[in-house]
Amino acid sequence: MTPAHEPGPWWEALRGAVEAHGFRLNGGFHDDDGGTIVVIGHAGPRLWDRFSAEMPAGPDPLDRWTRATLAPVAARFGAELVLPNDGPPWRPFQRWAMRAEAVHPSPLGLLIHPEFGLWHALRAALVFPERREVPDRAEAPSPCDTCAGKPCLTACPVGAFDGTDYAADACAAHVRSAAGTDCRTRGCRARHACPVGRDRAWADDQQAFHMAAFLDGRG
After folding, report:
1. Pairing of β 111-112 and β 36-43
2. Which residues pair with 42 in a beta bridge?
3. CB neighbours of 211 closer than 8 A, spacing ≥ 6?
4. pTM of this prediction?
5. Reduced to 3 states, what is the DSSP secondary structure of residue 25?
6. Would residue 41 be called left, alpha or beta, if left means φ above 0 and alpha means ψ between -120 and 50 degrees?
7. Cα 39 from Cα 77, distance rounded (Å)
8. How far from chain centre, in Å, is Cα 61?
9. 20: which residues sit within 8 A by CB, 6+ positions away?
């Protein structure tokens, strides 16, 4: 991976404000309207440790906590805060992420990171109306390009992934069933099968939280 250029004090101040809450500053880019978009995500246990200690009661706790936590940061730096589930209009978060840093589509449909593998997530973006100096995008090839075995495509107990489509209904039915206890409590087997970033895999309680949110979303 080639090193990214660091743009100076304002970026370091933003990084500190974001990382103080366990988030990760993924990168930024200039949009076609002359503004700047900065993508925020997380990887590793820091955000989960913070969020699980402060989790609000009620529906969509992670989105609500993210908004409440990052809204003061957005106001401080003069940006609009948007989350992936905000809309309409729906924002193209995956395309934004790929413009901000070296992440690539994986056979599972998730974006793969050269260091974190599949164990990262997009949480928010800051939209600035003006052009701001941001780091150059660090370039790195997709780890999937040299993964000959593609174990992620054969690990799912119900074959929900074929490299193109995702059988979400079959996946949800299995996860809800007695046979899906392992997936429900420890996370997606296909995700675990990816050899990249295995040491960054989320803890079981975080996996179970996200699986429960997935099932809630399926109705």
Report:
1. unpaired
2. 121
3. 175, 183, 184, 185, 187, 188
4. 0.94
5. strand
6. beta
7. 14
8. 16
9. none
What confidence tens digit (pLDDT) does each residue in 125-183 have? 999 999 999 999 989 999 999 999 999 999 999 999 999 999 999 999 999 999 999 99
List the structure tokens of 54. Answer: 């402060």
pLDDT tens digits along 3-28: 445 577 999 999 999 999 999 999 99
Q: Read off the tokens for 70.
A: 């990052």
In contact, 154 and 73? CB cutoff 8 Å: no
Compute CA distances 73 → 13, 76, 78, 80, 161, whole Å.
10, 5, 9, 10, 38
Query: Residue 134: helix, strand or coil by DSSP?
Result: coil
SS (H, E, C) 28-82: EEECCCCCEEEEEEEECCHHHHHHHHHCCCCCCHHHHHHHHHHHHHHHHHCCEEE
The CA angle 23-24-26, to the nearest 5 degrees, is 145
Phi, psi for residue 115 in degrees, rounded to 5:
-105, -45
